[in-house]
Amino acid sequence: MPFGIGPGELIIVLIIALLVIGPGKLPDVGAALGKSIREFRKASSDVEEATRIDTAPTPPASTAQAAPPPVSAAPEPNAPVVPPAPNAPVAPPEPNVLRTPSAPPASDSTGEQTR
Questions:
Q1: Cβ atoms 113, 105 nearer than 8 A
Q2: What is the pTM of this model?
Q3: I need a surface site. Which of 22, 38, 97, 106 has the fewest CB within 10 A?
Q4: Which 3-state string (H, E, C) describes 71-85?
Q5: What long-range pairs does 89-93 form, CB within 8 A, spacing at least 24?
């Protein structure tokens, strides 16, 4: 049996379900459970189909063209070397202050203003 559940354990689970759910609702719960399992299987097979890679071999090209020569990343041997631009000084960012002009200054429990 699936999940290692034997016939004895299955009967015990069904008896507990009958006691908890009741005989009137048990068929409805079973139908809903079966429908959920069917939808899950359908969704998982759809995902499998969507992610399947086509492994069919591609037909060979009828006219073979010569490949362009590879582009090398190395510079020409006699090319001038250009030094990188010097780093310009960067201004520090301005403080992020979010105060509104209409808000009164905050004060502590003694009545003194705080900053």
A1: yes
A2: 0.36
A3: 97
A4: CCCCCCCCCCCCCCC
A5: none
